[in-house]
Specification:
The complex is a heterodimer of chains A (about 475) and B (about 475).
Chain A: H1 2-18, H2 24-44, H3 54-72, H4 74-78, H5 85-96, H6 112-127, H7 129-136, H8 142-151, H9 164-188, H10 193-204, H11 221-234, H12 238-245, H13 249-253, H14 256-280, H15 285-299, H16 314-326, H17 339-357, E1 365-367, E2 370-372, H18 374-400, H19 405-416, H20 423-427, H21 439-453, H22 457-463, H23 465-468
Helix pairs in contact in A: 1-2, 1-3, 3-5, 3-8, 3-22, 5-6, 5-21, 6-7, 6-10, 7-9, 9-10, 9-11, 9-12, 11-15, 14-15, 14-16, 18-19, 18-21, 19-21
Chain B: H1 3-26, H2 28-34, H3 39-59, H4 69-93, H5 100-111, H6 127-142, H7 144-151, H8 159-166, H9 177-204, H10 209-220, H11 237-250, H12 254-261, H13 265-268, H14 273-297, H15 301-316, H16 331-343, H17 356-374, E1 383-384, E2 387-388, H18 391-417, H19 422-434, H20 454-468, H21 472-477, H22 480-483
Antiparallel strand pairs in B: 1-2
Helix pairs in contact in B: 1-3, 1-4, 3-4, 4-5, 4-8, 5-6, 5-20, 6-7, 6-10, 7-9, 9-10, 9-11, 9-12, 10-11, 11-15, 14-15, 14-16, 15-16, 17-18, 18-19, 18-20, 19-20
Classes of the chains: A mainly alpha (about 475), B mainly alpha (about 475).
Chain lengths: ~475, ~475
């Protein structure tokens, strides 16, 4: 029963394969994956209306996220782009988790089919493999809701539609629509078809794989501007975007998280602009553009990078690090802790401090005029605690493999929040070059990416002893 | 705030200054004994401090009870700031440093028992100044407030308010005034006894009385200053082990120690969760460091055990005595030491950091959340010592953790903005906020903070105060609502 969901995903991945299988290797791997998928599917039969418990939904979520990236690694191996198994898994996990850390040093040199495949893995990963599955398989009625909550743990979602499959397919539609619009715009801006396609998929999913060795530096200003706008959009809750495009303005207005996101984005971009201008002598359009591009890329955990100004003052670096951790809105394709959680935390903290002075005052935390229950606040605290634990633990293992302490922290933070490469890491003297990391480091980063993408609990649940007790 | 409250605050400060002046006067003993020519400046500093103290007390004689909680927070912060301000006098008057920033950093580091120093050559300082540094740590480590509370039970302030402002959070100390006073007296008795015992032990092991007194003062308070430039690296291995024992005790809950030493074991009940965690964390970490040093760096077993045992306890209790330059060790070992400093010793000890108790609650709370997600209908209370703790307490601990983590990050960023390099910023931020002292790079190991720009020194000393007051007391003062009526 548990493997059933896995088998459902695989043909999906494969079907995406055939469209671009220009290479012989890709075709072979496609066939293999399809074979495996069909085999499992037939083996387990079609009797598929289950009511899943939390336990099973955790299991499925985790297994899907483990198995699919493994299969996704096959094309890299078969085409000979990456000869090492570790490298292939790293690249594939990085794609599916929309991180965008790459071990391919020169993307220009690899077959175009592979570039497309990389972009597609991100795009699938973007809205979550699970959502993808549910949208296609509307069989799981009540169980599906549990699955949905395992994927976006902790962040309360307002459903778009009472029927979960319907609301997921709405999200899916808007996601596809944005992608298509972006592809069209990039084509109009004069990019090649391949570039437009790959970049659009990377951007919308907040992944960050690029098609050139030097990040985004070879592209025109117009392209960068378009990307900035879309990176910003991809950091917004998809449900919100849906309301926006279907002209349900009233729902759109009350969302405090979005307002916070906009204010934070503007503040960060403008203050970076000022800092860059002061440090590099004179205000220029290039600096302004870079600031916005960089902040959008960071806050949405997209992870594109481009030619940065010659001198990096400390303020943008510091700000970048904070934004890496904070991430974008809950319910978007971005990673990180998510602004909604941080807002709740901040409000709770303010109340706490007031209570220190006036012990008898009773406060509640309210977001969007709705009370947030205390239990939920506790969960957020727990989440952030574990998040930090994973960063520290990951950084510790990375230092075991030979990274310096600050390098290890930057790597751990940028990978757990699914950001991927960032100019910040360079500015701190560390290397962007994931290919040079030792094997063990790559596996550590693979785990961190998965943990970050699944928001910790799902993956932690299946390794906890209490999961296996009372079976 | 009422003017009568302000008067009472002045009166308090006066009392503390008199105590500080008296301790300063004690530094005359080494000055006369070693004849280092600092009698006059030390006398002047002590006289000045005493005079101000007496003046404040005379001026505001009226007996007054403070009921406003805000005054308690304000008072605690002011006490640390004012004490540290007057503690700069010996450094400045004896000409040990000409810069007020450096003197302020040093005295703040002493009073908060942090242990970071701005003097690259500690060994060349006059004896009286060395004793003063040790003494600031000794009384700072225990908490000035607690000492004075113990000595003057009739100060009139709501003592529990003051006590909780000082050691906020997960301490199981008394809930009312009477028990607070009893707790404070008991712990002070333990503190004095331990100090005496370790001075004697070190003396018997062949150390000079002068070194024994100073090193005991700085290690039992989990401070970490030394009279030698190379901290405790040059004392014999036996003495290093004795000092490690002193540090180990300094990281334990003093109330627990009191009950242990007076054979009142029944009163201890089954409250051993924290002790067990403390010992387990220590043993694991020491074993890891020892094995790491042996296997990775090829140090002989005898030495690697000694370095592992001593440096690990120094980090865990946030003492910061340095037995070997740990910044040159294998990176994960250095990293582990920093993490231990963040964890800190037991609640109710002289150590800094988050405290093991809180780490325990944090981990158990995370486990409970996880279980709750797996089995939503099962009640999963967070237990400590076998009893469920309230959700309120769990959330309080979470808040302190978050604020501590945020301060740590802001500390790193602030230091970087002041022009310190990234790796040293991390080290210094951890070192100052937890009270460990030395950090990474040139400011770690046997190094000093002498090369820090003035802004960075000010910022670091702010971090020390922040860490010592466990963040919340200082942050609440920054709240606009705090100052509104």
């Amino acid at each position: 029963m548990l493997l059933m969901a896995t088998s459902m995903v695989l043909p999906v991945a494969v079907s995406l394969h055939y469209g671009d299988g220009a290479q012989y290797g890709l075709l072979v791997s496609g066939v293999i994956i399809a074979g495996a998928g069909l085999f499992m599917r037939n083996l387990l039969g079609h009797n598929a209306t289950y009511e899943m418990q939390e336990r099973e939904s955790f299991w499925i979520t985790s297994v899907v996220w483990l198995v699919v990236p493994l299969c996704g690694a096959i094309p890299y191996l078969f085409t000979g782009v990456l000869e090492d198994f570790t490298d292939a898994v790293f690249e594939s996990v990085s794609g599916f988790t929309t991180t965008g850390s790459s071990v391919i040093i020169r993307p220009e040199g690899v077959p175009q089919g592979i570039l497309v495949w990389r972009a597609i893995t991100q795009w699938i990963g973007g809205l979550g493999l699970i959502l993808f599955v549910i949208a296609l398989q509307r069989r799981l009625s009540r169980g599906a809701q549990k699955l949905y909550s395992a994927e976006f743990s902790g962040t309360q979602q307002r459903k778009l539609h009472p029927h979960i499959a319907r609301s997921v397919s709405r999200m899916w539609n808007i996601y596809t629509l944005i992608t298509l619009v972006l592809i069209a715009l990039l084509l109009l801006a004069g990019n090649t078809t391949l570039d437009s396609f790959c970049l659009a998929l990377s951007t919308v999913s907040t992944g960050g794989f690029t098609t050139t060795q030097f990040g985004m530096s070879g592209f025109s200003d117009l392209t960068l501007t378009i990307l900035t706008v879309f990176m910003f959009l991809s950091g917004v809750n998809v449900a919100l975007l849906y309301n926006f495009f279907t002209l349900k303005w009233r729902r759109f207005k009350v969302n405090q998280e979005f307002l916070f996101y906009v204010v934070l984005f503007l503040f960060a971009s403008l203050s970076c602009f000022v800092a860059f201008s002061v440090a590099n002598g004179g205000f220029s359009v290039a600096n302004l553009q870079f600031s916005f591009f960089h902040i959008a890329s960071t806050i949405s955990t997209c992870g594109f990078y481009t030619d940065s100004p010659a001198v990096w003052p400390l303020w943008p670096a510091v700000l970048t690090f904070v934004l890496i951790l904070s991430g974008a809105c809950a319910g978007s394709t971005g990673g990180g802790i998510k602004l909604r959680r941080l807002m709740t935390l901040f409000l709770y903290l303010r109340n706490y401090l007031t209570r220190m002075v006036h012990p008898n005052v009773v406060f509640t935390v309210k977001i969007d005029h709705k009370k947030v229950p205390g239990e939920y606040v506790n969960k957020i605290f727990g989440f952030i605690f574990l998040y930090i634990c994973f960063i520290i633990g990951g950084a510790f293992l990375l230092t075991c493999c030979g990274s310096s302490i600050h390098e290890a922290f930057c790597l751990a933070a940028s990978n757990i929040s699914n950001l991927g490469p960032s100019p910040l890491i360079n500015s701190l003297g560390a290397s962007l070059d994931y290919a040079m990391l030792p094997v063990l480091s790559k596996w550590v980063l693979v785990i961190l990416m998965l943990v970050g993408r699944l928001e910790i609990f799902a993956l932690l649940a299946i390794v906890s002893p209490s999961y296996w007790k009372h079976r | 705030m009422k003017s009568s409250d302000i008067k009472a605050v002045h009166r308090f400060l006066g009392t503390y200054l008199i105590a500080e002046g008296a301790l300063m006067a004690l530094c005359l003993i080494p000055a006369l004994h070693f004849g280092d020519g600092t009698e006059l400046p030390i006398t002047l500093s002590a006289m000045f401090t005493l005079a101000i103290g007496v003046l404040l007390r005379q001026r505001y004689k009226a007996f007054h009870t403070i009921e406003d909680r805000r005054i308690a927070y304000l008072l605690v912060v002011m006490i640390w700031v004012v004490m540290s301000l007057f503690a700069t006098l010996p450094f400045l008057t004896t000409g040990s440093t000409t810069s007020f920033t450096a003197a302020w950093f040093e005295s703040m580091s002493g009073v908060t028992s942090c242990g970071a120093t701005v003097f690259p050559e500690v060994g060349s300082l006059p004896a009286s100044v060395l004793l003063w540094r040790s003494m600031t740590q000794w009384f700072g480590g225990y908490g000035i407030v607690l000492i004075v509370l113990a000595l003057t039970p009739r100060l009139g302030i709501n003592k529990f308010a003051l006590y909780s402002a000082e050691a906020s959070g997960a301490d199981n100390a008394g809930r009312n005034t009477v028990r607070t006073v009893v707790t404070v007296r008991r712990t002070l008795a333990v503190y004095l006894m331990l100090t005496l015992a370790f001075i004697v032990a070190l003396y018997l092991s062949g150390m000079q009385l002068w070194d024994a007194v100073n090193l005991t003062f700085t290690n039992i308070s989990s401070g970490g200053f030394s009279v030698n430039t190379d901290s405790i690296a040059s004392v014999t291995p036996l003495q290093q082990y004795i000092l490690a024992a002193a540090m180990f005790f300094s990281g334990m809950n003093f109330t627990m120690l009191f009950l242990l030493f007076t054979f009142r074991w029944k009163q201890l009940g089954h409250k051993f969760d924290q002790l067990r965690a403390y010992i387990a964390v220590y043993l694991l970490a020491a074993a890891f460091v020892t094995i790491g040093l042996h296997w990775h760096s090829g140090i002989a077993w005898g030495d690697s055990i000694r370095l592992g045992v001593v440096q690990t306890v120094s980090a865990l209790t946030t003492t910061g005595s340095v037995v070997a330059d740990y910044t040159l060790w294998w990176t994960p070992l250095t990293f582990l030491l920093l993490m231990l400093a963040i964890s800190g010793g037991m609640a109710g000890s002289t150590s800094g950091g988050l405290k093991i108790m809180r780490v325990l609650i944090l981990l158990r709370n995370a486990r409970a959340i996880l279980r709750n997600r797996l089995h939503p209908n099962v009640v999963n209370p967070v237990r400590l010592n076998g009893k469920p703790i309230s959700g309120h307490l769990a959330n309080n601990v979470m808040v302190i953790f978050i604020v501590f983590g945020a301060s740590l990050m802001l500390g790193v960023m602030g230091l970087m903005l002041c022009g310190v390099n990234p790796s040293e910023s991390i080290g210094a931020s951890v070192g100052c906020l937890t009270g460990y002292g030395p950090g990474l790079g040139a400011s770690g190991g046997f190094g000093s903070y002498a090369h820090f720009p003035p802004a960075a020194l000010w910022f670091s000393s702010f971090l020390m105060l922040m860490g010592r007051l466990e963040c919340m007391t200082l942050i609440v003062l920054l709240l606009p609502r705090f100052w509104r009526r």
